[in-house]
Each structure stands twice: as C-alpha cells, then as structure tokens.
Amino acid sequence: EWYRSGITAGNRQLDVSSVDKILISMGDIQRQFDANDWLVKAVTAEQIRAAKRDNLKAGIVTAQETDGLGKNLELLEAMYNFGLRVLQLTYNNQNYIASGCAEEANGGVSKFGMRFISKMNELGIIVDTSHCGKQTTLDACRLSTAPVIASHTGVENIYPHMRCKSDEEFKAIAA
After folding, report:
1. Which residues contact 109 (CB under 8 A, 6 or more apart)?
2. Secondary structure of the chain in the HEC alphabet?
3. How far is Cα 175 from Cα 171, in angstroms, rounded to an integer?
4. What is the pLDDT of residues 35-90, one digit of tens each?
5. How far apart are CA 126 and CA 84, in angstroms?
6. 20 to 30 A from 35, CA-CA: which of 9, 88, 159, 168?
7. pLDDT per residue over 89-135, tens digit each?
C-alpha cells in the first residue's frame, strides 16, 4: 500500500507512556527498520528526499505523548539520539510540560515546559501541538525558536471539537 499510495514517508510512533514502554517501542521500531530493506530511518529532510529518489520509504520517528519522560531531559536527548524528530507536548491531558486539549483549565506551558521546548529546539525535535490546548499551542509558538506544527488536527470553525484548532492558533503556527 505504501507504493500504491504514493506516500514518500510515514511516522514510526514511539510509545512514551512509561520508561518501560519507551524501551520496548524503541526496540520494536528499530526491528522494523532492520527487517525491511525498503524502509529507511530518516532523521533529516535530505534522507527523506534520498529515500524517494531511491524508490524507498522513509520512516520518521515521532511520539504523541511525554508522560514517560517525567522531567528527564537526558531521556529526551536519548530519544533524539535514537531518531526522534517530532514530539507532541501533551496527549489531551495535563502533564509536566503543558495542558492538553481535554483540560478545562487551559493552563498553557509550565515553567518546566519552557525548558523542555528549549531542549527540543536545541536538539532539533519539532514541537507538535496536535493534542495540545489552545493556550499551550499559543505558548509553544511564542516560546519556540523553531517552527511549530499541528501534524493532525481539524479546524474549530468548521467542526467545533476539543481537538480542533482556532484561527488564532493557526495564525500563530503559520507565523
């Protein structure tokens, strides 16, 4: 299906719900890369382009949660060294970093979250706000020195749902 679809790259998602799950999913994902000669672990845009030129498929290591990291920035760096390049700050709920889209308080990015975003920027991990609350998205766009994304979301004005982004959020991401 990868070849019939025309897709050049896809995510290989780490489970970051606990330290145990991080280790298990890192092993599972590496096994996918090792077992499939058509799948290349891409850690740069050039590697995605090269995979396309070579009629291969690029896998981008991503994660939708940060709970298993706690406040351990060294573990974040280890995940980067493994190949993590896109990371959501929250997965719907509140964590040490920020408020998710399911939180009524809409608290935004915490003090630790500021350090976390700075470390993501330093390493080169893309800040993803897909499951983040409105204030978290706005804060991330203000705090990040690199572009911020919402890799999978909807438009609040078209369909009002907690996961959808407002015009204000889209403008902040675009800026």
Report:
1. 89, 97, 98, 117, 135, 136, 139, 140, 143
2. CHHHHCCCEEEEEECCCCHHHHHHHHHHHHHHHHHCCCEEECCCHHHHHHHHHCCCEEEEEEECCCHHHCCCHHHHHHHHHHCEEEEECCCCCCCCCECECCCCCCCCECHHHHHHHHHHHHHCCEEECCCECHHHHHHHHHHCCCCEECCCCCECCCCCCCCCECHHHHHHHHC
3. 6
4. 999 999 999 999 999 999 999 999 999 999 999 999 999 999 999 999 999 999 99
5. 9
6. 88
7. 999 999 999 999 999 999 999 999 999 999 999 999 999 999 999 99
> Residue 31 corresponds to which tokens in the numbers above?
């096994």
Q: Which residue do the tokens 């675009």 mark?
A: 174
| Residue 98 in tokens | 């920020």
Q: Tokens for 126, please give them.
A: 């893309």
Bridge-based pairing state of the strands 57-63 and 84-88:
parallel
